[in-house]
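Morning F.,

Quick status update on the modeling queue. The single chain you submitted on Monday has been processed. Sequence for confirmation:
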Amino acid sequence: MTSEDRDLSIFLDEEQEGSRSSASPDDPPPGRSKQRRALPVWQESILLLVLAVVIALVIKSFFVQAFYIPSASMEPGLQGGPGTKTDDRVLVEKPSYWGSGSPQRGDIVVFADPGGWLDAEESAQPTNAVAKVLGKIGLFPSGGHLVKRVIGVAGDTVSVNDKGQITVNGHALDESSYAKPANHACGSNKPGTCYGPMPNVAHWKAGPIPAGYLFVMGDNRNDSADSSYHLCTKAETECSQKPWVPVDDVVGKVVSLVWPLSRATIVHRPADFEGLDRK
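Structure tokens below.
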């Protein structure tokens, strides 16, 4: 090794030693990247809360929303209203009606008040600030909605036959699997043996149903202000109410009863609604 080589070696050793001495104790070892400092717990909590609210809003707006049953109109399957220990909670899914999808006969649907079907108390929204926020993300029940079963769709004709049975396009429905027996006579049938309409609108015919609309009824005809209730009869000389529910007002389809847990179940469309196309 020449004198120049020795001098260069000494210079390099001094430079490396100076670099090591100037390094910060907090610097990571060679070959390792410096880790980010973790957020304080309070900031992480706020971030997680905001993220949870955003996810809840997205789910409620596009996929699934919870509703409660406010009345006895859908008994015996769905229970609620005055006199009951608890209002049933149901899940309503929305993707089935995306795009070309639309409500089918037999579906139980939740829809906004088409106009004058609910009174002021039933239409009232939460007034408490916390309840309003929870209502926006679907964790608190809000007013202004109804739950009914779709009986007829666009083009259908719905009527009552001489036995008090609901007919769709001339087909009589066997509603024994989901409707509550009537407490009044339905045509030639005795009380408790039929599932017909309310007694004040015992004889009617509705349709053809206009495009973009539905004809809906509660499963408890004794206590359901539904399409048949709002139907203008021949005896009425002045009638402004309409029985149709706009498809655009439908929030979604009830797919499950989730509360109370003792009665939790999946909600299916009755097979009796198959094959009801116009004759």
